[in-house]
Amino acid sequence: MGRKKLLKKLGEFFSMDRRARVRRKEELKDLLSRLKLKECELLERLEQEADPQRRKALEGKIHVVHQQRKKGIGLLRELRDEDA
User: Exposed/middle/buried for 28, CB within 10 Å: 0-12, 13-18, 19+?
Assistant: First the structure.
């Protein structure tokens, strides 16, 4: 196999890696937007809830979703910094 073919294969390999990172970032953005919608929905339900036990359960769910979003945002920032 010639040098040109090897370089072409190497270039294709690295472009696949880049495409995988781009796809992962896009999937992460989609997930973060869905988590944000869920958090907003839970906050609205919390405002309307009068029962203290249900309010506490909703607050726990909101906390979990918020922490997931926070972790996802940090991961997205790391991926963006790697590309820069």
Answer: middle
CB 35 within 8 A of CB 76: no
Q: Is the dihedral of CA 4, 6, 7, 12 positive or negative?
A: positive
What end-to-end distance do the CA atoms of the chain give, in Å?
Answer: 34
Distance CA 47, CA 26 (A): 32
CA distance 26 to 16: 15
pTM: 0.77
Query: Does position 81 have pLDDT exceeding 90, yes or no?
Result: no
